[in-house]
Structure formats: structure tokens, C-alpha cells
Specification:
Blueprint (H helix, E strand, L loop, with lengths): L8 H19 L6 H10 L5 H12 L9 H6 L2
Length: 77
Amino acid sequence: MKHESKFSENQQQSEQQLGVHETRQQGGHEFANADELLRFDSSHTAVPHEIEQRLKQSAAGLPPAPRRSWWRNLLGG
């Protein structure tokens, strides 16, 4: 017995094209370095509430970071 497709050839082709298009939109990111990848990931990842609270508590006891002078920022030193 011959297997008959429920879709016409045009419908199958259009579905295949949609699948390729969706795949390109979902995972088409390229990053120049690992820092960009981490920034992208952190902007799209939600931190659980418990961990956020623990981080705030542990960071509350730290002294503020010393300010760098403008010329060190400019020269990268």
C-alpha cells in the first residue's frame, strides 16, 4: 500500500521554509568575545528572588569601590 501525504507539496515546502526561517531567528547570534556572550546571557536570564536577596545582603557589607581618576580611565591604567 502506498503511503499518501496529507499535505500537498506546496504546503510541505512552505512549512519547511518557515522552519528554516524560525531557526535562523532563534539561534543566529554571534559574539565577538566571551564578555559579549555573558552580557547577552545575563540580560536574558532572570535571577531567582532568594539569590538576589542573598547577593544584596553580602554586597551591603562591602566598601564602595574607589573612584578612578579621569586620566587613568582615558589611558587604561
